[in-house]
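User: I'm writing a tutorial on reading structure tokens. Could you give me a worked example: one chain, its sequence, then its tokens, then a sentence or two explaining what the tokens reveal?
Assistant: Sure. Here is the example chain.
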Amino acid sequence: MKIGIILQSNNPEHIWNTFRFGITALKEGHAVKINLMNEGVETEDILDTEQFDVSKKVQEFKDLKGALLACETCLKVRSKSESKVCPTTTMKDLVKMVEESDKVLVFG
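And here are its predicted structure tokens:
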């Protein structure tokens, strides 16, 4: 199954659980694409804590060949030119992800 996920939160627990879900789905043989939108593009700025090892979950997701994209416009709103953890994407790309996905989930 192709799973599309939209992460629109900068809450460490939301981010952590989003990536945990993505990792589990990848390990079950599903294709997973996460699109960071709104505050979700701040994922790379979230510091790891004892409870939420966000950077480790992001890296594990990428190591398992999960696709990760960040909204270019959302980055610009935050005065960022590009994401350090993943390529940027456009609204047109998001529409394509939704069209190609069997299921779409929104976290945050």
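What the tokens reveal: The radius of gyration is 13 Å. The first helix runs from residue 12 to 27.
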